[in-house]
Design goal:
The structure holds three protein chains of three kinds. Chain A is mainly alpha-helical. Chain A has 32 helices and six strands. Chain A has a two-stranded antiparallel ribbon. In chain A, helix 9 crosses helix 22, helix 12 crosses helix 14 and helix 28 crosses helix 32. The C terminus of chain A is likely disordered. Chain C is an all-alpha fold. The two termini of chain C are about 30 Å apart. The chains are: A mainly alpha, B mainly alpha, C mainly alpha. The interface between B and C is large, with 77 and 101 residues.
């Protein structure tokens, strides 16, 4: 049998050269036929077959069938150099019926609703990955031919940031990350250029160190350098991981390098009264609107405009504190702190109160001998090496340019240029996150300091940095949605100087410049009546007792109040209408009564506002008991017609009032003069 | 040979040793076709299984590290690492090409007179001088991998010389009968293989030595 | 001996393939009526010449098909690689085959050269054919090198940059030579176009012509070399 088979094989395969040639040719043909076969059974055909099977069982099968086109699908965006074939397998991204994650498996799920149409933008603009690929692994993973894998969902918001420079409501993580970039001063050292040539600006305000010996002691500087977090948990100052000797030398240099500020060195004239008076003055002055203090439970309470004051007594020398409270602008003309115009007894009270805010342990173990010249010289070298002057002004040391690597295109940094730690995932997002979390783990000689950030903050920062991609930088200008340019508005004249002295812009925004803690004052002159404004500046009160942050009392003189009121009433007017277009007095009683009825029945305003303090229970909007003596009639009328046009983003609903109703309600509200003359707009 | 034109000779059937088979040209053609087809099948299978390498889009701003030439030039690149570009990149390749072209014209191979028949000690001396000089030159440049063939070949040549003229064994006598061109060509091929292998497999970023089985 | 004679009788095997083979043989006037068994054996020539020719044929056919999909422009050249890989039916296969067959061809040409040398097949009267063969080796390397740039990826870009910088180190003429080859001082769009023309037109045509000469001379110089036959010829000489 075996011999027979052998003979048969010999005869058929090897006996004649022609046969051998024939068999070899057949083998070649078969081999050649494998390629088209492989092509026929490729992945995307498989998914399209699966999809057909999947929709055939659904009730909306006919519609889905109708929408489906077989074959390779492609979205081509020549302007962005994007070729996307993702929809070849993700066949139903635009199907609204298939968005349910529970019942529809990938890759057939419809995309959740977003502002953009997938046909106009493709997929990889946001999700990254290899658009031209039609194979699962190639499209989603990093390969030698395409390093950028699919962006992990946790950083997805970064993609929005490539075009949208302004904050979006849908991207809280990105917005937070961008704030942190400014707030933690990352951009002091790392340059980030935007496609329009501008740079990302820091929003922190690191104090000048040129006069630091006035303010604090060498021991405090030493302790602070060793561990900033021990002094203030909210600080944005990072830990440079300095050795004891290095911290000693830097503190020696900073003290030696400091020059005194010419100032009133008057000591305490009035002995401090009982401590509670200091605490209540701290409260009345609304210091907590800007400064935080850590309470006994460890919670940080207060604003984040100014530095945390939990242990200010350890840091600030009493004479410096006194001078600062009298007028902070003497020490730092650029400070966000208002010049409060405290009386001398008040200054003493607050100085004593703040001086007691200290932690006896903080400096307990700091013993520093007198500095030697070598230590000072070494300290200067260290200050230069660690780039302290990139953030802080230090006399004699210039601000270094491009101190740290530029991050303009960090979001698409090639993997080949990254040195990964052993065991680390080889991806750009992981690299960025790890670098922020543990900057020094990448090598011994690195200078980047250790920040204390929560995991959510690291994610947010990574998201913000991932938005700075090559593509974002080279994006056609027509496609960028720029952030609102920072206005450089500056009020003029004496009033302007007064407003700078009072640091109005730290809380209020006017004409696009300023903070968002307090109401925008751009149209204040149109809105309020002059007597009310004068009274308010003299003694600010509130219509919302629940608010912690309020306008502090500045002890303004009569002439100062007149100056400010004149300026605001004249300059800060809306161009939309004339303040005096409606009379603020003499309303027919019938109209007032009609307004009352509209207020209580048709529009049910009392659900949010209070007119009758005994009966009404509306606490959402401001109390309106004195609104007639606070606001102008024209403002109320236009406010009722369209609140958002006067204050974008206000929660007051637009009720689409007709003119007659608006007039009647205005008349009614204008008669609410209240008992007291105090009040606040909205 | 001079009066025997090639075309005439082509028609002749070479003298045949007793017992040898002669086959038609057609069969040779078939055999070669079959060989080609088998090679084609192998290549087709290779093409079905292994994808041709493709990296990221060329980017003049980001240098690939190491920037490697195609594998058949990595030997040259390895030399470039040791010698100035003009020597390794221009002089040596030109010499190699010239040597290849002149090989048949310089080949005075008369079997009866081998390399070691005359002036044996003199020739051994020049061999030693050349080998030492070349080794010193290469080591001076740091090209230790290029000295391997020099040392191997000169050692073999010395051995062959010692075997020449006395019956030692088939292989030994075969080796001692080899002409100079054989040795030069073997040396050249050995250099080519070693340098190419080192350049293609054992060099990593910055052209430092890496083991190919260790992934960066 | 009898068996061989019988095969030669032709009558037993008659089919289109044999006819075609005879045609080929007769057309080229290469048909020596007989070749000796040792010359046919794999162990003497390893069929290296034929195998090299086979890879070159594969290169020609796959190359022609690839030309249908390729644009020598930036960045379309690279996009075409992606299209071949992901969209063109069997495109991946075409590119892979072209690539691997190219590597095989370079390797085979080298081995062919070594084999010819060690067999002594370069000796007169074949010395000029040896030179033709050496030229073919160089052209093969050039073909492979010019093809290396065409995908326009990182490897090809930097590989060619390294190669062309070697050329620039030639004294006096180096920079000019590189300028002529690349159509500029760096590897750019002009270089891609030049390499494409070289790779797809000039070099293949030269190789085809030289292969013709190579084979014609092989035939004229007495067919496949066999040491014994040359020896016997030599001994027959006066």
């Amino acid at each position: 049998m075996n011999a027979q088979l052998k003979e048969w094989l010999r005869q058929n395969f090897v006996a004649s050269p022609v046969r051998r040639f024939g068999w070899a040719s057949l083998l070649l043909l078969i081999a050649l036929a494998v390629a088209p076969t492989k092509d026929f059974f490729n992945e995307w055909r498989h998914y399209q077959r699966q999809y057909r099977k999947f929709i055939s069982t659904r009730p909306d099968s006919l519609i889905l069938q109708h929408h489906f086109t077989s074959g390779i699908q492609q979205i081509w965006l020549p302007q962005l150099a994007v070729v996307d074939r993702c929809t070849t397998c993700h066949v139903a991204v635009t199907e609204k019926n298939l968005q349910d994650p529970a019942s529809v498996p990938e890759p057939f799920r419809g995309h959740p609703p977003v502002a953009h149409n997938v046909k106009d933008w493709g997929c990889v603009i946001c999700h990254r990955g290899q658009g031209p690929a039609t194979e699962l692994a190639e499209a989603h993973n990093a390969t030698r031919a395409w390093e950028e894998p699919i962006l992990p969902a946790r950083y997805l918001e970064s993609s929005c940031g490539q075009c949208h420079r302004a904050p979006l409501t849908g991207t809280p993580q990105l917005n937070q990350g961008r704030n942190l970039l400014g707030r933690y001063g990352c951009v002091h050292c790392h340059t980030i250029k935007l496609s329009d040539g501008s740079r990302v600006k820091p929003t922190d305000d690191p104090p000048s160190l040129s006069h630091i010996a006035d303010k604090t002691t060498r021991e405090w500087i030493y302790a602070w350098l060793k561990n900033p977090y021990a002094y203030a948990v909210t600080t944005t100052m990072p830990d440079f991981k300095l050795t004891d000797a290095d911290a000693r030398d830097i503190s020696a240099f900073l003290i030696a390098n400091s020059t005194p500020v010419a100032r009133d060195t008057e000591g305490a004239r009035n002995p401090p009264a009982e401590p509670t008076a200091g605490a209540s003055l701290y409260g009345e002055s609304f210091c907590a609107s800007c400064h935080a203090v850590q309470n006994a439970a460890g919670n940080v309470v207060g604003g984040d405009v100014g530095p945390e004051l939990t242990r200010i007594g350890n840091k600030a020398k009493p004479e410096w504190l006194r001078a600062w409270l009298r007028n902070p602008r003497v020490y730092n003309p650029e400070t966000a702190m208002p010049h409060y115009r405290f009386t001398e007894p008040q200054v003493s009270l607050l100085t004593a109160y703040l001086g007691n805010k200290s932690d006896s342990d903080l400096l307990a173990n700091v013993r520093l001998d007198a500095a030697t010249p070598e230590q000072v010289a070494h300290g200067k070298l260290l200050v230069t090496t660690y780039g302290c002057a990139a953030c802080h002004e230090i006399s004699g040391i210039g601000k270094p340019d491009n101190f740290a690597p530029e991050l303009t295109r960090v979001g698409s940094k090639p993997l080949t240029e990254i040195v990964f730690l052993p065991g680390m995932k080889r991806s750009t997002p992981d690299y960025i996150a790890t670098k922020i979390r543990q900057p020094r783990s990448f090598g011994a000689g690195l200078k980047m300091p250790q920040y204390t950030l929560a995991p959510a903050q690291i994610d947010a920062l990574t998201t913000a940095l991932l938005a700075f991609t090559e593509g974002a930088h080279d994006l056609p200008m027509a496609l960028t949605i720029p952030a609102k340019a920072l206005a450089n508005y500056q009020p003029a004249g004496n009033a302007g100087e007064l407003m700078a002295d009072l640091a109005c812009f730290s809380c209020h925004a006017i004409n696009g410049r300023g903070g968002d803690m307090a109401p925008d004052l751009s149209s204040e002159g149109t809105a309020v009546q002059r007597p009310w404004l004068e009274a308010f500046l003299k003694n600010p009160g509130t219509l919302r007792p629940a608010l912690i942050r309020r306008m502090p009392k500045f002890n303004l003189s009569k002439s100062e109040i007149a100056e400010l009121t004149d300026y605001m009433m004249t300059v800060y007017q809306t161009p939309a209408f004339d303040r005096d277009s409606l009379s603020s007095t003499s309303f027919p009683p019938a109209q007032v009564e009609q307004g009352r009825q509209l207020f209580y029945s048709k529009y049910a305003c009392q659900s949010c506002h209070i007119i009758d303090t005994k009966a009404d229970k509306g606490y959402i909007g401001p109390t309106l008991t004195q609104v007639g003596s606070r606001l102008n009639a024209a403002w109320i009328y236009h406010w009722l017609k369209d609140p958002q046009s006067l204050q974008p983003g206000t929660i007051e609903p637009n009720r689409n009032m007709n003119d007659e109703d608006a007039r009647a309600l205005t008349a009614f509200l204008m008669t609410q003069k209240g008992s007291s003359n105090q009040g606040r707009k909205k | 040979m001079m009066n025997n034109s090639p075309s005439e000779r082509g028609k002749q059937l070479p003298a045949r040793a007793p017992g040898e088979k002669s086959i038609s040209y057609r069969e040779l053609l078939f055999r070669e076709m079959i060989a080609i087809e088998i090679l084609a099948v192998v290549l087709v299978c290779l093409a079905l299984v292994w994808n041709a390498p493709l990296e990221q889009l060329a980017d003049p701003l980001h240098t690939a590290n190491p920037a490697k030439a195609p594998w058949y030039f990595t030997g040259l690149q390895e030399l470039l690492h040791y010698f100035p570009p003009f020597v390794a990149g221009v002089i040596l390749p030109t010499l190699i090409v010239l040597a290849l072209i002149v090989v048949p014209f310089f080949n005075v191979n008369i079997k009866d007179q081998t390399l070691w028949d005359r002036n044996k000690s003199q020739r051994l001396m020049s061999l030693a001088i050349i080998a030492v000089a070349l080794t010193v030159l290469l080591l001076h440049a740091g090209a230790w991998d290029a000295t391997i063939p020099v040392l191997t070949i000169s050692a073999l040549m010395a051995l062959a010389a010692s075997w020449a003229g006395r019956p030692v064994g088939r292989f030994q006598n075969w080796l001692s009968g080899k002409p100079l061109s054989f040795w030069i060509m073997t040396w050249f091929l050995m250099e080519a293989v070693i340098l190419t292998t080192v350049g293609a497999l054992f060099r990593g970023p910055g052209w430092v030595w890496v083991w190919p089985w260790r992934n960066s | 001996m009898e068996k061989v004679e019988r095969k030669d009788a032709d009558g037993a095997i008659r089919n289109p393939l044999t006819a075609l083979a005879r045609w080929g043989a007769e057309l080229k006037h290469m048909s020596r009526d007989r070749v000796r068994e040792p010359q046919l054996g794999f162990r003497h020539t390893w069929y290296l010449g034929a195998l090299t020719l086979g890879t070159f044929t594969i290169q020609l056919s796959t190359g022609l098909l690839l030309m249908l999909y390729y644009h020598p422009s930036i960045p379309q050249a690279y996009a075409d690689m992606k299209n071949l890989q992901f969209v063109v039916s069997s495109g991946f296969f075409l590119r892979n085959l072209h690539r691997w067959s190219a590597q095989a061809m370079v390797l085979l040409v080298f081995i062919h050269m070594a084999k010819v040398f060690y067999r002594g097949a370069f000796r007169p009267p074949r010395e000029l054919n040896w030179v033709v063969g050496s030229t073919l080796l160089l052209l093969t390397l050039l073909l492979s090198y010019t093809g290396y740039l065409l995908p326009w990826d990182q490897t090809s870009y930097w590989g060619v940059t390294v190669g062309s910088s070697i050329m620039a180190s030639v004294p006096v003429l180096g920079e000019k030579l590189r300028f002529v080859l690349l159509g500029g001082n760096t590897v750019n769009a002009n270089a891609l176009l030049r390499f494409y023309v070289l790779h797809a037109v000039i070099l293949p045509l030269s190789v085809i012509a030289l292969i013709g000469i190579h084979m014609w001379r092989l035939h004229q110089d007495g067919g496949m070399y066999s040491p014994d036959s040359e020896e016997s010829e030599k001994s027959e000489q006066p």
